[in-house]
């Protein structure tokens, strides 16, 4: 399959590498010349404009977007003059699901097929196999099953439902992630301040070998301790939030559903922006380990 790929950040570059390893042809665009050079070194064909991307991609086109949600509408507007009926857009970023529903409807009305793909696993998953949650027309999803299978870990892709469902499920996933990370941060903070002089590196390693809370998050926490030391002196205590936790809380309110854990974890991150803490450091180092997010203190 030929993929016209837009967005060569941490996720996009690694996904392009995986697509190439699976035998797909990739023509890629990113406004960054350096990002294009990296993709070219992997074997992708790169172009310097969206117009060139469209002209050099065979019809009907498969266009994968992996860009920040704030610029999706701008990219789609720039693509619009070059799209033709039967082209398929797969939006793989973290977009608000209501925006996805709107975008899908607008494109479907123009004869452009639109799938939303929530991608979990961070840059490592994009390269080695992700978890992908797909929304949109079921018949279009069925056409792309093999592509999603090749981009995922075994059993790591599924059709979620009508347009917006993929991004909705990914949003809730990230809200749950907030709560799980906060629980780990609180627990390790308690152990750090106890009278037992615990080696938290050993605790994290142990927790990730057969315990009920064994998980990728505990593994990433352990790797963060190994890299930075259990006091995390080099790590910022101001834990960032990328939006999905807030969207989950707002959606729950609209539905009349109580989400105390997710809401409290969001408030904890907001508080850490003004009052940095060890819990904030723990969350920052986990985000760094799985997502490559900046975590070190400013010099």
Which terms summarize this structure?
299 residues; globular
Overview of the structural elements:
This protein is α/β, with parallel strands linked by helices and 299 residues long. It contains 14 helices and eight strands. It has an eight-stranded mixed sheet, sandwiched between helices. Helix 2 links the parallel strand 2 and strand 3. The longest helix is centred in the middle third of the chain and has 28 residues. The N and C termini lie far apart (46 Å). The model has no long low-confidence stretch (mean pLDDT 96).
Could you give a quick summary of the protein structure above?
The chain has 299 residues and is α/β, with parallel strands linked by helices. It contains 14 helices and 8 strands.
């Amino acid at each position: 399959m030929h993929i016209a790929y837009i967005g060569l950040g941490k996720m996009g570059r690694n996904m392009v590498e995986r697509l190439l390893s699976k035998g797909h042809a990739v023509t890629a665009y990113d406004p960054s010349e350096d990002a294009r050079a990296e993709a070219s070194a992997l074997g992708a064909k790169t172009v310097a404009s969206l117009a060139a991307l469209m002209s050099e991609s065979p019809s009907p086109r498969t266009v994968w977007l992996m860009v920040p949600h704030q610029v999706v509408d701008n990219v789609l507007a720039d693509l619009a003059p070059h799209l033709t009926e039967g082209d398929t857009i797969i939006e793989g970023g973290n977009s608000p699901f209501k925006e996805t529903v709107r975008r899908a409807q607008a494109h479907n009305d123009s004869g452009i097929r639109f799938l939303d793909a929530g991608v979990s696993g961070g840059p490592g998953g994009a390269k080695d196999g992700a978890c992908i949650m797909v929304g949109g027309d079921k018949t279009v999803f069925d056409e792309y099953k093999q592509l999603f299978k090749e981009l995922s870990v075994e059993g790591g892709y599924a059709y979620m439902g009508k347009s917006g469902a993929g991004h909705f499920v990914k949003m809730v996933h990230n809200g749950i992630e907030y709560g799980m990370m906060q629980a780990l941060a609180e627990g390790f903070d308690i152990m750090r301040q106890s009278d037992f002089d615990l080696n938290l590196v050993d605790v994290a390693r142990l927790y990730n070998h057969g315990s009920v809370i064994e998980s990728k998050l505990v593994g990433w926490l352990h790797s963060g301790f190994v890299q930075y030391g259990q006091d995390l002196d080099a790590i910022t205590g101001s834990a960032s939030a990328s939006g999905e936790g807030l969207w989950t809380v707002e959606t729950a309110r609209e539905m009349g559903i109580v989400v105390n854990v997710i809401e409290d974890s969001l408030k904890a991150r907001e508080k850490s922006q003004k009052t940095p803490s060890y819990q904030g450091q723990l969350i920052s180092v986990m985000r760094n380990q799985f997502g490559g997010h900046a975590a070190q203190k400013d010099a």
